[in-house]
Write a structure and sequence with these properties.
By secondary structure, the protein is of the alpha/beta class. 39% of the residues lie in helices and 14% in strands. The protein has one domain: Metal-dependent hydrolases (TIM Barrel). Bound molecules: zinc ion.
């Protein structure tokens, strides 16, 4: 049986490689290692490309929650812009070096994606998770765009000068706090002008509707269905419906804490839950607006889908779930690729 390629909405491989030291990044990526994404695993699993995120991690005393519901972890404080920018540049440099080593191709337009895949290079879109690195005058945005940035999450949960995110809270919806700030609305407008995709994963409810008001397609690269797993990071039915109506995209997050009905991190049963999320997301957003947003290298993974070398587990689960190959192909790559064709000039 042919392996349907996966083009994925979100991963944190750059963060992991950056933590290991930029000089080691190429070798680490080429050798089998403990991460969720490397060259061998990508080839084995048919992982052909996707959004590669830069993410300045919280420092100081912040620790990720243990995900034992109910939980409600306070968010780390805002990050100074220059501190964030330095980390974003270093992580983007990892991707630039991977490209220089002919391992990935940084795709600045939708037209770059198919040739990269034909060459056997991973087609990478540069994404920034959280806009901390951008100044109020948006100069850094213009420079990062010139360097290849094509997708931007306004927040990674912690607040920025542009907007407010959702905390790690379960159970909870995302209707927490105010919408985008005036600077945030200018940021979204500038992204629209440039052709930078705006990602609403991690954003709170009011911010989500502010992005809709800006006339952009609603995209949540790595979020699931709140009706199945009622954590703050997952989308309500109304939000999923708006994703479909605006011809946007929602990417299935493989993170167990976002899949499991009970909000726990345990790996068992998470693939079955993933099928229930897909059913629900397709029902409300439509089958042309649902893709994958693995969160590889950024979240605890399900049993059997421990890394991108094991994507067949997901394909097999979809087949057992009576998804035919045409629908599986839409979810695995076609929906993201046609969305990018429509929106990324
Ligand atoms: Zn995330």
């Amino acid at each position: 049986m042919t392996q349907i390629p996966v083009f994925d909405g979100h991963n944190d491989a750059l963060l992991r490689l950056w933590k290991g030291g930029i000089d080691a990044a190429i070798e680490t990526f080429q050798s089998a290692n403990a991460g969720h994404i490397d060259l061998k695993k990508a080839r084995a699993g048919g992982f052909v490309g996707g959004f590669f995120a830069t993410f300045p991690p919280p420092g100081g005393t912040f620790v990720m929650p243990k995900f034992e519901p109910p939980y409600d972890e306070p968010l780390p404080p805002m990050l100074p812009q220059r501190e964030a920018l330095a980390m974003v540049v270093e992580q983007a440099a990892v991707l630039v070096r991977l490209e220089a080593a002919d391992l990935v191709r940084i795709c600045k337009s939708a037209r770059d994606i198919a040739p990269a895949m034909l060459e056997g290079r991973i087609a990478a879109l540069l994404h920034m998770e959280g806009a901390e690195a951008i100044d109020p005058d948006l100069q850094a945005l213009d420079v990062l765009y010139a360097a290849g940035l094509r997708s931007l999450g306004i927040v990674w949960s912690r607040p920025t000068i542009f907007g407010h995110g959702v905390p790690f809270r379960y159970p909870s919806d995302a209707d927490i706090g105010p919408g985008l700030t005036p600077d945030g609305k200018r940021l979204v407008a500038r992204c629209k002008e440039l052709g930078v995709m705006v990602d609403t994963s991690h954003l709170n409810m009011k911010g989500f509707w502010d992005v809709a008001d800006a006339g952009l397609p609603l995209v949540a690269t790595h979020s699931n269905a709140h009706a199945i797993s009622p954590g703050a990071r997952n989308l309500t039915d109304a939000q999923l419906k708006a994703v479909g109506e605006t011809h946007g995209m929602v990417g299935l997050n493989f993170g167990t804490v976002f899949l499991r009905e009970d909000g726990r991190a345990a790996p068992y049963g998470a693939i079955d839950a993933a099928m229930r999320h897909l059913d629900h997301m397709i029902k409300h957003a439509g089958e042309d607006h649902v893709g994958l947003g693995s969160d590889f290298d950024g979240a605890p993974m399900p049993e059997g889908l421990e890394d991108c070398g094991k994507l067949d587990t997901l394909r097999d689960a979809m087949r057992r779930h009576d998804f035919g190959d045409p629908l599986i192909a839409k979810i695995c790559n076609e929906n993201w690729l046609s969305f990018l064709d429509r929106t990324l000039t």
